[in-house]
Amino acid sequence: MKLNGHEIAEKIYYDLLKRVEALQKKTIIPHLVVILVGENPASVAYVNLKQKKGEEIGAKVTILRYPETVTTNELVEKIKLLNDDPFVHGILIQRPLPEHLDVEKLELTTAPEKDIDGFHPDSPYTLPLPLAVVNVLEEVYYPSSELSESRSIHVLDSTSFRSNNKDFIAWLSQQNIVLLGKGPTGGGPILAHLTTLGITPTVIDRKTPHPEEIMKQADIIIAATGRENMVTADNIKKGVILVGVGVLRGKDGKLTGDYNEEEIKNIASYYTPTPKGVGPINVALLMQNLITAAERQTLK
């Protein structure tokens, strides 16, 4: 069964619209500034989606585009200006970044209360991506009616309400979860968040021997490599749950993920497509963090 990320995301946006309307009545427009370095196709696609969805709910999203030759110090100076701007409520540094940039310095320069991506150690926000993955797994575990009701009541939280539900966590703990990739923008944050829930997945990276044998035993595979055909019909079992996080542009120029949807759709019990899978949920949860940031910074 295909899990439509847009449908899950729309449940979140429904609540955010009402919260933005309340802010607008106080002449407050939630404002996110995205720093985009270079022209990575996947990054450009995500940034454009963030701008589109932000504007749809009444927020302002400004994209600052820089060439790959930009220096760390140039970005640091810009971030400092954004930190001091009371009309900017969220700052997002789109990853991945060129290797010459000091990512940690940029993260630490960003004001924690404006770091809606959750990379600053003192940020009050959880990185949206691992929350989006958990939202997908909740969609599998909970009946649709219960899912809708829980989201409408608890969407104000910056973390997933049902991630604290003992039944869901117990179910997740019983699954053989395999995580493909442990990069700083994908698998790494997902692994860290699952660990906080008491979940220990098996991690496969480039050095893992016989990864196919490990994948064949998995109940849930979270694919976060951004490499084509990492998951195939030959290395998964019938009924597996596939969550696709990695994104790349295929040979045909279209965005694709770590597995071919047509190849696995009759084997997996549930799967997310790429695009229109985890990505839209990730953006919705990022917008949720933005609205929360605007409320915290202005409604004091």
Give a quick precis of the structure.
This protein is an alpha/beta fold and 300 residues long. The chain has eleven helices and ten strands.
Describe the structure.
The chain has 300 residues and is α/β, with parallel strands linked by helices. It has 2 domains: 27-114, Rossmann fold (3-Layer(aba) Sandwich); 128-279, NAD(P)-binding Rossmann-like Domain (Rossmann fold). Helices cover 43% and strands 13% of the residues. It contains 11 helices and 10 strands. A 5-stranded parallel β-sheet has the order 5-4-6-7-10. The longest helix has 21 residues, at 278-298. It starts with a helix and ends with a helix.
Features:
alpha/beta, Rossmann fold, 13% strand
Count of DSSP-assigned helices: 11
Identify the CATH homologous superfamily of the largest domain: NAD(P)-binding Rossmann-like Domain
Estimate percent helicity: 40-55%
Question: Strands of the biggest beta sheet: in what spatial order?
Answer: 5-4-6-7-10
CATH fold name of the largest domain: Rossmann fold
Beta-strand percent range: 5-15%
The SSE order reads: HEHEHEHHHHEHEHEEEEHEH
Q: Based on the structure, what is the oligomeric state of the protein chains? A: single chain
Number of domains: 2
Task: Decide which structural class fits the backbone.
Answer: alpha/beta
Give the termini separation.
Answer: 45 Å
CATH class term of the largest domain: Alpha Beta
**CATH hierarchy: architecture of the largest domain:** 3-Layer(aba) Sandwich
Structural Rg: 19 Å
**Globular, elongated, flat, extended or rod-shaped: what is the shape?**
globular
Reported for the largest beta sheet, the result is: 5 strands, parallel
Mean model confidence by pLDDT: 91
